Amino acid sequence: MTRTAALWLTLCVAVPVQAAIDVEVEGLSGELLDNVELRLAIAQADSRKDLDQSMVAALHQQAPDEIRTALQPFGYYRPEIDARLEGEAPNWRARYQVQPGPRTHIRVVDFHIDGAGHDDFERERRRISRRLLSGIPLLHSDYENFKSLLATAAYSRGYLDARYTRSELRIFPEDNAADVHLTYDTGPQYFFGPVTVDQGGAEQPLEPEFVARYVSSIRQGEVFEP
Predict the structure, then answer these.
(1) 24, 31, 51, 55: most buried, per Cβ within 10 A?
(2) pLDDT digits (tens, 9 = 90+) for 27-58
């Protein structure tokens, strides 16, 4: 084969081209933008090797719903989204102009503590009441943090059966409003009973002095603290 023929064959060999999608989200910044970019499947698609026109079109079609979902934890339930896809394989340009719209605010806070520990959580009740207020912007993470705050406090004070009997965050997008309904039942408080140590059958039983030192820190009648 001549050098000319070999060169011609080399030039005719198809070289795979890496597909790429240039994604841009406009109109958002900070945490809103970060969460949208994290949830956009089309923004994560560059690493895929099976990209083609139909797949990119499908990813682009689902993008507005992904943007809406990403904005909801920050209280934005009525965004306006202008989505555009340009180009063809192997390069595409996806543009999303987003107006987050009005922010949802908390309208109603309905919060109750039932059970034996009704009067034991005044400190937590005040903390929650100061930060979960009617009229403030809705932030889902605050709502979840408030729920965890009370659950953690109850468990640490021996209310091992405590649970939420009602836990609702109701959204009314047309009113830009959210209603919070929380009812927490502490159940009974647990206390230490008599302490017994049975080492029967142990191949290497613990030294009595060690056992006594450990057991002495537990007093019958004290609140059980896990």
Answers:
(1) 51
(2) 999 999 999 999 999 998 876 777 889 999 99
- If we measure between CA atoms, which residue out of 162, 159, 130, 158 comes closest to residue 146? 130
Question: Which two three-digit tokens encode residue 225?
Answer: 């603290």
Phi and psi dihedrals of 46, rounded to 5? -60, -25
Is residue 43 within 8 Å of residue 23, measured between CB atoms? yes
In single-letter form, the type of residue at position 84 comes to: R
| Cα 164 from Cα 151, distance rounded (Å) | 9
pLDDT tens track for 129-169: 888 899 999 999 999 999 999 999 999 999 999 999 999 99
Pairing relation of β-strands 177-185 and 105-114?
A: parallel
Contacts for 128 with CB less than 8 Å, ≥ 6 apart? 111, 146, 149, 150
Neighbours of 164 (CB within 10 A): 13
